[in-house]
Amino acid sequence: MLDCVPAGPLEHTTGKINPAKTCQPIGAMYAALGIHRCLPHSHGSQGCCAYHRMHLTRHFRDPVMASSSSFTEGASVFGGLANLKTSVKNVFAIYDPDIIAVHTTCLSETIGDDVPNIIRQCEIPEGKYVIHVNTPSYYGSHITGFANMCKAMVSYLAQSDGTTRKEQMNVLPGFVNPGDMREIRRIVDLIGVKLILFPDTSDVLDAPITGKYEMYPEGGATIDEIKDSGNSELTLALGSFASNDAADLLQEKCGVTGIPLKLPIGLKATDAFIMAIHDWFGVPVPKSLTIERGQVIDTLIDTNFQYQGKTVAIFGDPDHVIAMTEFVITMGMIPKYVLTGTPGKQFEEEVNKMLEGAGITGSRVKAEGDLFELHQWIREEKVDLLIGTTYGKYIARAEDIPLVRFGFPILDRAVHPLMPVVGYRGCLRLIEQISNALLERRDRDAKDEDYELIL
Amino acid sequence: MEENCSPQAGAPSCLDERQGSIITAGRSKSRITCTTDSLAGSVSQRACVYCGARVVLNPVTDAAHLVHGPIGCATYTFDIRGSLSSGSEMYRNSFSTDLRERDVIFGGEPKLSAGIDEIVAKFHPPAIFVYSTCVTGVIGDDVIAVCRAASERHGIDVIPVESSGFISGNKIVGYRAAAEALVRLITPREGEIVERTDSVNFLGEYNLGGEKWVVERYLKEMGIPINVAFTGDSTVAALKRAPGARLNMVQCTGSMHWTAMKLEEAFGTPYIDVNFFGAQNTIESLQRIAEAWGDPEVTRRTEVLIARENAKIEQEIRKYRAKLTGKRAAIYVGGAFKAIAIIRQLKELGMEIVLTGTQTGKTEEYEYMSGLLSEGTVIIDDANPAELEKYLIEKDVDMMAGGVKERVLAYKLGIGFVDHNHDRKECLAGFEGAVRFAREVWVTTCSPVWSRIRSQADPPVTTEGS
């Protein structure tokens, strides 16, 4: 791309040029990896499964295991019944997971395979599970697929034993990194409330190396935990796009109260997350978290002059972008362009409401956009900083704007899946990244006489 | 270690149906089962037809590559290859018709047509490749007709690539779809005459890390210009000049033999096989080209070049060989061509090959491969991670050469890894490439990090609960 984006403005009406989203099945696969001893299964052509595994592997830099129904032309004509039945048999025989999480693809959806009906015909070994979700690639995005798989976990597994509620809380973390899930658990553990976190890819996709290969690493929410989620008092759904559907179903099916929250990225959203737990369970916020919060505010004061008033373009997955927009407003920056590839008008409504509340005008906000469009906007009027996935690097180079890598996927840097952006520690990391990006740019551009030691 | 590999006690380490796809060199005379479809339910490393077609065509730098289907297929191939361009960056953009539910119900043809129009209006590419995907194959969009109409409307080549994923799980079928699209592109229209030139086409070269440029430099010194490469750093106009070349040299057999045969049929251009991975392969290939050219001056220059370049690297290679001799290597790559090239190179470095396999190898290729290997080497077709893992451990492998999915598996087992996939960034061709490859193998095989893993497995401090 680079200089290939023609000088605008040009109306972009058909299809996508340089997409900012991908398809549902990869989200379903990622969610399924957050169940302990689960093998995700892709019901479609082999290429889908290979691409999803490759893409996830490039982001997480860890092995991603998933099986495929290996459709051929025959299956596409006569239906995938035989392929799925054989798959279930083979997967249990050789890979021996506790649970197979089947997701569909555009191919099996279009030919109209009745997956739940096929699963009913499968021989499932005693004590094992097969769950499924419909994830047509031509609807929604990878975030929709993630949300749908979370919902399938609830519909297949969650159950309420009776009327008494256990003093425990469910958290649906959304499509975040294992490092974020680990941090969410740390925060809740500090507060001292019993937590069921699902899905949970920590210790799955950030497992330490031991010199042995574990097909099913130690992490992941256990089937028993997900079943027991129906007995919890409360569900916190982090990120409306990724988590609300599962929380709603849990409320409807098992009567667990669901509270929708933003992803706890940034000061306000982390406060809201912690206060929601505090308010519901009446437990005090531990001093250690109060100290962490104080450190964030202290750091904001130390650095605010570096980013105050700077304009920023943010793109990526809707829940991430919404939370990040709120945080940069907290930091005194101006979100000039805010874009997600995922469809959904509520994205635009939510972001516009925040901008309005902060008295910011003249920003462009769009759901179901692409990077061609974002690039055109930036061509028209430049911003000081770009926050988004690796795919932003072309725009960053072409327009000479610093890029802070954030969200999924990040394909050109390592370590990020282990480092949380949620919670107060996440705030510190984001402040550091944003402030360093701007300072490095300043150093790079400074004339010799303006090149300062102390900034 | 073993009990971690076979999750269920007493479970077979591989399915009975897979037994024929794993053989041992030397010992058995049985033929490997390959080019079959993968078993349903396997964690295969294989991909699909679209994937194969896309990697072959993607390096055509000034063409627009439009993926007709839901978004995923375009996203996963958004600027994925390490193919370098000396000019246009057009090919790095990702174009998709982004089919939605209503398109799947009512047909995607109008959206495809509009998508082509928009690309032409905005980018003015000399050609557009339109890739069909699973859905467009199933709903029966007439991609060929839409392309033909668009071609007439805009006066440029709009070439359909028949790459619906479900046609096969074997990328080779996709290579063929790409080759057909290329032949369609370069076949002169009625009345068009392509000028004959004293030059060579380089088929099956994708300019990863600038590899085509290395070979081009050698050939230039020999006095033979490269007309165009298929498809590394190529342009639509250059490809259209392909029929004018005097000779075709073919590197990646999996993707380009068929094309070479077609070119011979249509334009009478003879072809020879070449391979520029490793010093020995490079020397033999350069000599073969000189021989085919039949000019004593070219032969003389070739020998001068070989002597000089080989002398330059000999000492370096010897240095690495001293460090790598006796180390045990595994290879798992897409095609047999690449596997054979790597086998030869690793042997040149004194390494012992204990495991090898491919996603798409053919019976005769496996037989040839088997002849290069010592007795006891395991050969696997379409391996799944469980099989790779089993043999990587059993054969006590020090270093593996493979693609993106194998890298993390090798690392988790504490085994070194060299990327030899189509998305690598390093130039591994020619004499300098041989040194770079040797260096990469040394870096990963002899990295101090592996000794840290052993201490991690047996930590100095026992923590609570362990």
Question: What does this entry look like structurally?
Answer:
In chain A, helix 14 (345-357) links the parallel strand 11 and strand 12 (364-366). The mean pLDDT of chain A is 95. In chain A, the strands form three sheets. In chain A, strands 12-11-10-13-14 form a five-stranded parallel β-sheet, sandwiched between helices. Chain A folds into three domains: 24-156, Nitrogenase molybdenum iron protein domain (Rossmann fold), CATH 3.40.50; 166-288, Rossmann fold (3-Layer(aba) Sandwich); 289-449, 3-Layer(aba) Sandwich (Rossmann fold), CATH 3.40.50.1980. In chain A, 46% of the residues lie in helices and 15% in strands. The relative contact order of chain A is 0.12. The two termini of chain A are 35 Å apart. Chain A has 17 helices and 14 strands. Chain B has 466 residues and is of the alpha/beta class. Chain B is 46% helix and 14% strand. Chain B has helices at residues 2-5, 49-57, 72-75, 101-106, 109-123, 134-139, 143-154, 171-186, 211-222, 236-240, 253-267, 279-293, 296-324, 336-348, 363-372, 385-394, 404-412, 430-445, 449-457; strands at 22-24, 64-68, 95-96, 127-132, 157-161, 200-205, 226-231, 247-250, 271-273, 328-333, 352-358, 378-381, 399-402, 416-419. Chain B has a six-stranded mixed β-sheet with strand order 1-12-11-10-13-14, sandwiched between helices. In chain B, strand 11 (352-358), helix 15 and strand 12 form a beta-alpha-beta unit. In chain B, helix 12 (279-293) runs antiparallel to helix 13 (296-324) and helix 14 packs parallel to helix 15 (363-372). The longest helix of chain B is centred in the middle third of the chain and has 29 residues, at 296-324. Chains A and B meet through strand 1, helix 2, strand 3, helix 3 and helix 4 of A and helix 2, helix 3, strand 3, helix 4 and helix 5 of B. Strand 1 of chain A pairs antiparallel with strand 3 of chain B.
